[in-house]
Amino acid sequence: MNTDSVLLVMDVQNDFLPGGRLAVPQGDQVVPVVNRLAARFANVILTQDWHPANHISFASRHPGRKPFETIELAYGTQVLWPYHCVQGSHGAAFHDGLAVDQAQAVIRKGYHAHTDSYSALLEADRVTPTGLAGMLRERGLRRVYCCGLATDFCVAWSALDAQSAGFETFVIEDACRAIDTGGSLAAARRDLAAAGVRLISSDRI
Ligand code: VGL
Ligand code: ZN
């Protein structure tokens, strides 16, 4: 793959895999696909959802609320999640079968207690940068290929932000799996198409 392309592998962490606290259905099926893809890219970057134990997205922080309900925060609507990907926990660790030792950086996100961050570029307040866009620009990387978990949250939000930051952006659909809560997958597909993000299959890489 071109030296100005990067494979962005999102949140392939134990808590998002079967048996995890926020398991994405068939999330484990992305692992062999991601491993195959990663071997073909000159540049690979991983993301890692990395929450403090008191993170605002945890339903347990909001008395009377349950996972998958939504609440309104100062920065907009927030889905409430089960406790997941707590810093240093086994659930936050990458899946053992992920074979991407050549990855050049790990972007941790969601580490501010009061702000969620699905996107690898901008936190959910839509103003706090993670630094990834700057790293990509400084390194002359122009094309971003997104894969991992979950299609309708981390992958979609990252792809939308990458596209609007000026990167040519792709989502490798068979290398992703979705949570799909409250119509989130259909909404993500619609938003990605409207933004001009290209949905492709791994056999086209
Ligand atoms: C994610 C829900 C909660 C994701 C992260 O990375 O897609 N989804 N935290
Ligand atoms: Zn999270």
Q: Can you give a write-up of this model?
A:
With 205 residues, this protein is α/β, with parallel strands linked by helices. The chain is 20% helix and 22% strand. The chain contains four helices and eight strands; from the N terminus they run βαββββαβαβαβ. A six-stranded parallel beta sheet has the order 5-2-1-6-7-8. A two-stranded antiparallel ribbon has the order 3-4. α3 packs parallel to α4. The longest helix has 14 residues, at 151-164. The chain is globular and about 50 Å long. The chain binds pyrazine-2-carboxylic acid and zinc ion. Zinc ion is lined by residues 49, 51, 57, 81, 84-85, 110.
Which labels suit this protein?
205 residues; alpha/beta; globular; single chain; two-stranded antiparallel sheet; binds pyrazine-2-carboxylic acid; binds zinc ion; six-stranded parallel β-sheet
